Every structure is written in C-alpha cells, then in structure tokens.
Amino acid sequence: MRELILHCSEQQAESLSDALLELGVLSVSVEDADEHTEQEKPLFGEPGMEPEVLAWQRNRVVALLPEDVEPEDIVAQLNEQSDVAIPATAWSVRDVPDSDWVRITQAQFGPIRVGDKVLIVPSWHRDDPDLVIPEQGDEGGIRIELDPGLAFGTGSHPTTHLCLHWLAEAALTDQTVLDYGCGSGILAIAAKKLGASNVDAVDIDAQAVSSTTYNAEVNQVAINASLPDALGDGHYDVVVANILSGPLKVMASMLCGRVRPGGYLALSGILDWQAEELIEAYAPWIPMQVWQEREGWICLAGRRPA
Is 276 found in the same domain as 205? Predict the structure, then answer.
C-alpha cells in the first residue's frame, strides 16, 4: 500500500482532509510538519473536547491510498478544486509495508490488572492458563472479558482504572448500582461480578448501550442497559460516573439525587486541577473528596448524608 503525503497551511488542513476522503482514500491523518524541531507547537484541549485550533501552522496531511488508485490522479483531482491547490513540490508518496494489522492492534492490548481483585482480559487471551486472579478472602477476584474498541472503557485509561479500583474496594454485595455514562459497560459488569444485586447502566450513545449489552452477555451477567430517558425513577446504594468535568458539573443535582441517603457516589474523568471546582459543585448535596490520583487524573468519592 502507499501513502500520499501533502504539505499545507493551517487554513487548508481541514478542507484538504475532507476533499481526500470524498475522493475515496482509505484514511486521513494530519501531522505537525515541524514535529521534533524547535518550531514544534502542541495543540491544547481538554480530553474528549476539540481544541480551538484544529491544525498547526505547517501540516502534513497523510492519506492512505487504495491499491488501485494512483497518487497522481488524486493530486490532479485536488487541483481541479478551486479552494485546494497542490503544487508539485508540496506532495510525495511513500510505501506502507504489508502487515497483519489485526495482530499488531491486538498486541497493544494485553491483560490489565486493577488492584488485587480485577483482571481485564481481551478476548484473544481468554484461554491463557496463566491469567488467574488470586483469591481474596471469601470474596475472590473477578475476570472481565472485553474487546477494545467497542466503546470508551477498556480499563487502560487512568479514569476507568480509578473507577474499577474504587468499585473493587467498595462493599458491593447485595447493593444496587447505577453506572451513568457506561461506555463499554466495564464498570457495570465489574459491579455485578463484585456482588451487586442489581445494576443499571446508562449512556446517551446508543452504540454504548449496545456495547454494554453485548459485553454483559459475553461475561454472563445481567445488566439493565438503556438510554437516559428509559431509566426509571429510583435511588441506588452506589452511583458511579466516569465522564468529563463539564458534564459532571451540569449533572451534579441529578446524579446526587440518584444516590439514596447513606449511599455512595464516585466520579472520574476529572483532571487533578479540576478537583476543587467539582467538589464545590457537589457540595450542596454530597461532600466529595479526592479518593485517589493516577497520571494526572483523579477519582472523587463521597457519601450522601443519611
């Protein structure tokens, strides 16, 4: 396979990417043409949100070409468009060696241990005899089988790891749990395997609801997954939400209202410098405090007054 590499300005990067996709290239990525030099400049934005600037001053737009497409033809078609002009000196071609991309991708996702009780196992490792969680007293450990990529929440990100660790340390036996913003369903599945009696999982993304349902079936646990409008009234012994600081602030009243008096709330998706504003936002209902920090992210936890 081959990649077509084009150099362009910040103003051209987005329109050029869109034009390439319309012409049938397999994928497009935008890179800083000044990376690894003194002119390299980072683009800043809160995780999960787009930065204000979507490209660098000088960019490399890299398009992966189908086997039957000639790069010269793509450039010629681009030059026919009045708003995108590519001079001969502004593009080049490089070969991409054939690889087993599935195997390469899988190799990036090995089993993930969370504390002493939780082991997340990608499906291609399910039969590995060495993957055994040590017994933890009368409770024991749990294994969660998950395919990366179905939705956010593979356990590799610090925010998911923090929530899993918090759930593993909580006393969930016979408790009711709400996972708000369930993504892949990993937190809901963990809660059920850790002894929760009833687990509801909610997400605004229908694909996440489908992923949670699928992963729950794979792990042989009963999870009630739905969109927010389908969630009935009621309170929970434990509510966990791994989202982002902005939505968490907006939903403070609602999430706290889902926690029964004496119940617990855990929040993640929060950068360490955002902790105080989140604590302040939840203060009218539940006193929250930093439970743990991991790689610049934190988990807040608190108990609703009885």
Answer: yes
